[in-house]
Amino acid sequence: NAGVTQTPKFQVLKTGQSMTLQCAQDMNHNSMYWYRQDPGMGLRLIYYSASEGTTDKGEVPNGYNVSRLNKREFSLRLESAAPSQTSVYFCASSRSGTVGYTFGSGTRLTVV
Amino acid sequence: DQQVKQNSPSLSVQEGRISILNCDYTNSMFDYFLWYKKYPAEGPTFLISISSIKDKNEDGRFTVFLNKSAKHLSLHIVPSQPGDSAVYFCAAHVYNTNAGKSTFGDGTTLTVKP
Lengths: 112, 114
Fold this sequence. Notes:
The complex is a heterodimer of chains A (about 110) and B (about 110).
Chain A: E1 4-7, E2 10-13, E3 19-25, E4 31-37, E5 43-49, E6 56-57, E7 64-68, E8 74-78, E9 87-94, E10 102-103, E11 107-111
Parallel strand pairs in A: 2-11
Antiparallel strand pairs in A: 1-3, 3-8, 4-5, 4-9, 5-6, 7-8, 9-10, 9-11
Chain B: E1 4-5, E2 10-14, E3 19-25, E4 32-38, E5 45-51, E6 56-59, E7 62-67, E8 72-77, E9 86-94, E10 101-104, E11 108-113
């Protein structure tokens, strides 16, 4: 039972490069989320998706785009990476009507 | 303005003793409060939650207490074990039947010494 799978686990980008972080869950959850965690700080919500075909902005959406490709997959795209986007990115999912999330193991992104 | 605050970055306790982790919040609209546990290089793992209409929830060694008037919650771990050493995040959740959203504190690093 894989749960939430994130790829890649590590990535180094140059300023201005683009990339897509992939997330997939196999628990048939409706809701999916992208958070970022900076050193010494908590998780901040970037975007979320209540269901397939819908996405909404969270607390820190600037510089990011998302796609809810189907019920399983929710990707996060950085169009033009900046050093301020250096962070650990976590994808999470939850079943509708529940309050706890299942998180992936994270993607550690460094922008130089 | 940070809506969820964990004022203690770290806590060290002896194995077998009680660990008390604290969390304060500012928004009265939160419906649930949760605690997550995080080991290095892993994602957070959901530990325990409490509804805003309750003042206590217990699950084995873990108990969460909620004081709504003080906008304060705490997680008690009794007895503490070395395997409990991790970062603990407090989260406050706005419930929605479609996709509720959680706001996280900055975390408290718990070290349980053998």
